[in-house]
Amino acid sequence: MPNFLINMFNKIFPNFNERKIKDYYSTVFEINCYYKSFTNLSDNELKIKTSDLRSAILQGQTMKSILPEAFALVKEATRRVLGLTLFDVQLIGGIILHEGKIAEMKTGEGKTLVSCLPAFLNSLFGKGVHIITVNEYLAQRDSTLISQIYELLGLSVGLVTADMNIDEKKYNYNCDITYVTNSEVAFDYLKDNMVMDISHIVQRNFFYCIIDEVDSILIDEARTPLIIGGNTQSSVSKYIKASEISKYLLKDKDYEVDYKKQIVTLTDKGLLNIETLLNIIDLYDIYDPWAQYIINSLKAKELYIKDVHYIISNDHIEIIDEFTGRIAHGKRWSEGLHQAIEAKENLSIKQGMKTLSSITYQNFFLLYPKLSGMTGTAKTEEYEFEKLYKLPIVQVPTNKKMQRIDFPDIVYRTSYYKWKAVANECYDMYLIGRPVLVGTTNIESSELLSRLLSDYNLPHNLLNAKPENIKRESEIIAQAGRKKAITIATNMAGRGTDIILGGNINVVVKCKILDLLFNNQFINLNSNKMLVELLNINDLNSPLMITRLDNQLYDLLKRSEYWFKKLSERIHNKREIQKFIIFIIENKHKYNYSNNPLILLYQLLYNNYTLILEEEKEEVIKLGGLHVIGTERHDSRRIDNQLRGRSGRQGDPGSSRFFLSLEDKLLKNFGADKIANLMNNLHIEDSVPLESVLLTSVLENVQQKVESYYYDIRKSIFDYDQVLNSHRYGLYSERKKILNNYYLKDIILQYSQNSVDQMASLYYSSYKQQNKKLAKSVLINLNELLGLKENIELQDLNSLTLNHIKFLFRQQMIISYDLKEAYWEEIAPGTIRQLEKYYLLSQIDQAWARHLEAMVQLQDAISWRSYAQQDPLIEYKTESFNIFYNLYQYISQSVVYMIMRTSKVI
Ligand code: ADP
Ligand code: MG
Questions:
Q1: Pairing between β-strand 410-412 and β-strand 690-691 as defined by DSSP bridges
Q2: Which end of the chain, N or C, is more open, meaning fewer C-beta atoms within 10 Å of its C-beta?
Q3: What pLDDT, on the 0 to 100 scale, is given for residue 770?
């Protein structure tokens, strides 16, 4: 159903979702009955229950029938290990995930634990369950948490990270449940399909997958495919030649320039001119592409101006950022444009990357027979999830009633007054002590606001989405709910970590300890000062303080310091030490409390901070909770909802407000004039904002338009990738077959037959057309290839039909191959089998890389040629069929050629 129909449907039947939820309650009731009956079982008996369920499945019981018991086991294990009781809405979320759907549950509703339920149930099959997170920090955090529950139930939890070797990865993928990031799991899939030895494959066949923050992975990241690249060798000369030629070409005669859209198109005359100058037949030949080089050179000539778009420094092209006017160090324009500009400026040309293999997330995740996902914000993209992924969405009600107030947007005429208003709002909140989270759409504006707040002398944390900061990010976000905290974050930063009012105790204590150890605050501190620092208490005379000043803590600090020094002697790498300490803290339940001073220190600080944070929480709640400020409407409502959703978790109070200006990108592009007119008519001054509910709904309409624009782009990428995907599937299965086989002679012979058949056909047709020269050269090639003792000559074939010739060629080929094999067996027994495998696999990989490039060229060529009245996608499908056919021809020829030649050399 298109979005507007779904919207209409939801308006007419507002209770449809509710009814779906109601249906789940009978199962919830069953789960809770089992759960109650498990209270008195021993830990060991719980484990036995798990293996009972496993055997039930082996004996053919359906998952549906054992779901209540399995979920109840997880609920009981969670209670025992974490001391948390799963809410009914969490159980419902689990059922939805098990059904292969998307569970929309708000931030802070406890989705990590929700995924644990279906993961457990599905892992009973023994085929592995993948839980996908957006970054490694979350994968690590969640797997540590969940592994405690699973250990109790007797299941294994794996974690795959980028720095692991093959054996470690394999071990972790073989666990019952595996935590891994979206990029790592897809890269491993690509790499598994490039291995030369079967023992290097790390993944099992896919079975069931739960994607956390599913909208971020399947929607936001859907536009950039994953690529494994290698260095390219070719084409430097092409850039230079293209640059030369572009100098001779004339604007409006050979080519036309559209400055607004930033595109260059060739005229028919220009096309002919270029082909003559280059002495080629087809500028768009996908195996010898020139068009892209020429177009890029013309773009470099017409659209990219030195000292406006780039500067030259140290013989390098450096891009000038169009928004900030700053140099974007190290950034390069893509798809050959950068090289074209280097050629124009007579600089040395830096090699680009060649794609060895690639896949889009869209098609990657569709490889799972069963897929499911969870997020706080999916509903706005319902159509896309249903259409492309066949993933229906069910909205799960919150556990406690949502208390957040979303105020209507405020619009200023200029961005100057907008930012001033944002800073003022931060100031007002700071004065009363309410924590504030400000979301910005880009790094520049977050820095701008940060400077403004510094002018106001307001302490604040600034976050951006650089990958190396993700861990720290989560820590800052975890403290964003403390009193007086002001946090500026680009919209996506710190996803997956919820903001707890008063602060997240675990993170606060962990940070404090790391801070203490690494900044050497122990040394030369008198105990009072140190404790003030440590306990974060400003008032030395507070009654709380007196109870906390005890010698025990001081001694403990000394011991920890000693322990840390010893540790530093053993491990020199600061990062490693930090990792180790975090590991101990996070796995503290496994350690003996009385031994390790670090754990004792943790415990002590934990107790102290619990008091402080609890007090703080009460205070913050009284003040109204977290206030979220949006500084620009994003292109998609979903991202705005994510930002708002940071506040009001688990029934907390909270509020949100967006501050906008007519100079914002979204407003500038759509409908700012109407609002400006309105402001003029009302004689509103620049410093006075417009605030209305009506305006908010106008903006939502604009956003819906932009959303559907981006949907179309993603849909088109998906459609084009579908074509390539079927090729990928075919090739990967063939490759797997080869990899799994020891005896490949039959495949080689089959490929060879294919090759010599082609030669026979070519020979026959040229002979019939009296083209003796061509016929002869075919025979020379054949003789050369087969290395025959007695060459096949023209006169031998005179009177034969095509079928006879094919038969003869095949025979000769088999004889030649047998001879090579015998020869090899004598000097190095068994080698021929290895050679066969090696050549088959490496030629497939090379051919695939060549194919990928050809497909990109084809897509470009089709878009450049612009077919009148024709759907380019259909054109693409038709032509890609030929390219795919070529791929197989190419593989079979090159394999035979390689293997025959190698034998000859030895
Ligand atoms: P989400 O991913 O939905 O934003 P998380 O899984 O990160 O939420 O959980 C948020 C917080 O809620 C965590 O600190 C978690 O321990 C806590 N939590 C989850 N489930 C429960 C529960 N049933 N009772 C109490 N706290 C819970
Ligand atoms: Mg989460």
A1: antiparallel
A2: C
A3: 82
Cβ-proximal residues to 642 (8 Å cutoff; 6+ apart), any chain: 107, 376, 377, 491, 495
pLDDT at residue 458 in the model: 93
Known binding residues for ATP: 90, 108-112, 498
Element (H, E) at 590: none
Contact (CB, 8 A) for 601 and 557: yes
pLDDT at 525: 46
More confident residue, 206 or 333: 206
Q: How many helices (H) and strands (E) does the chain have?
A: 35, 22
Rounded to whole angstroms, how far apart are CA atoms 820 and 897?
Answer: 13
Per-residue pLDDT for 543 more than 50?
no
Fold match, 15-224 / 722-901: no
User: For position 301, what pLDDT does the model report?
Assistant: 92
Cα torsion angle, 410, 416, 422, 424, sign: negative
Q: What is the b/e burial string over 178-203, where b = at least 16 CB atoms within 10 angstroms of the residue's CB?
A: bbbbbbbbbbbbbbbbbbeeeeebbb
Q: What is the domain partition of the chain in residue ranges?
A: 15-224, 233-351, 405-501+625-691, 506-620, 722-901
452 alpha-carbon distance from chain centroid: 34
Tell me, what's the pLDDT at 607?
Answer: 81
Q: In the structure, what pLDDT confidence band is assigned to residue 728 with cuts at 50, 70 and 90?
A: very high
CATH superfamily of 15-224: P-loop containing nucleotide triphosphate hydrolases (3.40.50.300)
DSSP character at residue 396? P
CB neighbour burial string for 127-162, b if at least 16 within 10 angstroms, e if fewer? ebbbbbbbbbbbbbbbbbbbbbbbbbbbbebbbbee
Cβ-Cβ contacts under 8 Å for 25 (sequence gap 6 or more): 88, 92
Given a contact cutoff of 8 angstroms between Cβ atoms, the answer to whether 630 and 704 are in contact is no
Q: Which atom of ligand 1 is nearest to the CA of 109?
A: 3
Contact 96, 375 (CB under 8 A): no
More confident site: 39 or 9: 39
Ligand nearest to the CA of 111: 1
| pLDDT tops 90 at residue 367 | yes
Write down the pTM of the prediction.
0.81
Dist. CA 108 → ligand 1 center (Å): 5
Q: Is 478 in the pocket of ligand 1 (CB under 6 A)?
A: no
| CATH superfamily, with its number, for domain 722-901 | Helical scaffold and wing domains of SecA (1.10.3060.10)
| Strand blocks (E) in 56-167 | 102-104, 129-133, 157-159
> Which atom of ligand 1 is nearest to 107's Cα?
4
CA distance 195 to 217: 27
Q: What is the share, in percent, of the chain residues with pLDDT greater than 90?
A: 36
Q: How far is it, in rounded angstroms, from Cα 215 to Cα 163?
A: 26
Contacts of 337 (CB under 8 A, 6+ apart): 296, 299, 300, 304
Exposed (0-12), middle (13-18) or buried (19+): which is 652, by Cβ within 10 Å?
A: buried
**Tell me: the pLDDT tens digits for 13-25?**
567 788 888 889 9
Listed residues: CB within 5 A of ion ligand 2: 111, 496
Cα-to-centroid distance, 121 and ligand 1 (Å): 20
Q: What CATH class has 233-351? A: alpha beta
**In this predicted structure, what is the pLDDT of residue 477?**
83
Q: Which CATH architecture has domain 405-501+625-691?
A: 3-Layer(aba) Sandwich (3.40)
Give 720-779 as a DSSP string: HHHHHHHHHHHHHHHHHHHHH-S--HHHHHHHHHHHHHHHHHHHHHHHHTT-HHHHHHHH
Please name the residue that has the structure tokens 């053919």. 60
Start-to-end Cα distance in the chain: 65
Sheet holding 102-104, edge to edge: 157-159, 177-181, 129-133, 208-212, 370-375, 102-104, 393-395
Q: Is the CB of 134 within 6 Å of ligand 1?
A: no
